[in-house]
Amino acid sequence: MPVIVTQSSIRNAGTPLFQAAGWVEPRPTPVRVAALSPGVIEELLVVEDQKVKQGEPIAL
């Protein structure tokens, strides 16, 4: 299944810059992921291997 990416103009911090439909497959080596805006994770709302639904928050 191809991934379709839609990009919009830059908006205020915290607003998504793009949306993509598709899936994520893990690589055998760690991958660095950068945040769209600076911040601190105060609380994780999920645990490893927990299933989540689209739109469900995973951290505060």
Could you describe the 3D structure shown?
This protein is mostly beta strands. The chain has one domain (1-23, 35-60). Helices cover 0% and strands 13% of the residues. The protein contains no helices and 2 strands. The protein has strands spanning 4-7, 18-21. Strands 1-2 form a two-stranded antiparallel sheet. The chain is globular and about 30 Å long. The model has no long low-confidence stretch (mean pLDDT 74).
Topology:
Elements: E1 4-7, E2 18-21
Antiparallel strand pairs: 1-2
Shape: globular
With strands numbered from the N-terminus, the spatial order across the biggest sheet is: 1-2
Question: Any low-confidence stretches, pLDDT <50, length ≥5?
Answer: none
Helix content: under 10%
Question: Summary?
Answer:
With 60 residues, the protein is mainly β.
Throw out a few tags for this protein.
60 residues; mainly beta
